[in-house]
Amino acid sequence: MKKIFFVIAFPALCYWGCNKADSQIRADVRIMFYNTENFFDTEDDTTTNDNDFTPDGRLHWTPDKYTQKLTNIYKVIAGIGGWQPPEIIGFSEVENRKVLNDLLFETPLSKYQYNIVHYDSPDLRGIDVALLFRSDKCRLLSQEAIYIPFRTRNILLAKLLVANTDTLCVFVNHWPSRKGGEIESEDSRIQVASILRHKVDSLLNDNPEAKIVIMGDFNDEPNNASIVQTLKAQTSYNDITNSQLYNLSAKLAETSKIGTYNYMGQWQIYDQMIVSGSLLTPKHGLVTNVTDIHIYNAEFLLQTDDRYVGIKPIPTYSGIKYIGGFSDHLPVFLDLFLKN
Q: Are the C-beta atoms of residues 318 and 283 closer than 8 Å to each other?
């Protein structure tokens, strides 16, 4: 595959405060999460249901379309990064390690020192979560795929030493979808939330001041039972305690005009960032604030919603019609700063 090189005038493409990503006050550590929407290669994997995403499949997924997908994901990463790409990137809906390698080595990201954390999951479609981190900024201390006892995506956990200063425990999630209905599918998300909570408790038992970031597409909103009751992610930021979890995306739900996913004209915030209290009130090391989370809503990611009022993300496909867009989700990003 030929490498893709181009220059993008991002400031001209920004919309509704996406200047947050291009701010001249660049965070010490920027973390992004992106549901990449069917980031498949063109090869048939006989162990998964990926037949639609092959040249002869229902969607006629050709090498040219795949190259455009790589280009689009690169544009989003570059746009969010501002002066330099994010130090830590979480993805969902990636097919395999090959697509991650192609993104890192067949686009201009090749000039940055990204490493990959990825495990194949038992998902029927073969889509996984993954983590990228810049090895010039972070060092991988450990990695783990947290098993879920039914066929869905694993939870990924990576422990990173950031800027040779502080350890950050990063979880990447893609919880079961609402297929069949929100209520009918709720139990599966509650199961996954319970497993994640158990792992978080284990980390906090070892170190009550552990600095934790939980990101992902939860297919639930910040006020749903799976997140508030099972995961116990607080939506109020008064009297912060180190060992509690706080859902920063709940603040976005109060203040943002849009969400990260649009269903039948209604914005939802499925893509979220949750942190431990030790990241909000540290005496030193990594620190963030409830206002340091953002939805990246650049104009080039959005289109007019012809069926419903307003706007929505530009997807790769609309049904079986190829659109050539980015994703049906908008990414989120969180800024961390180093406190001496």
A: no
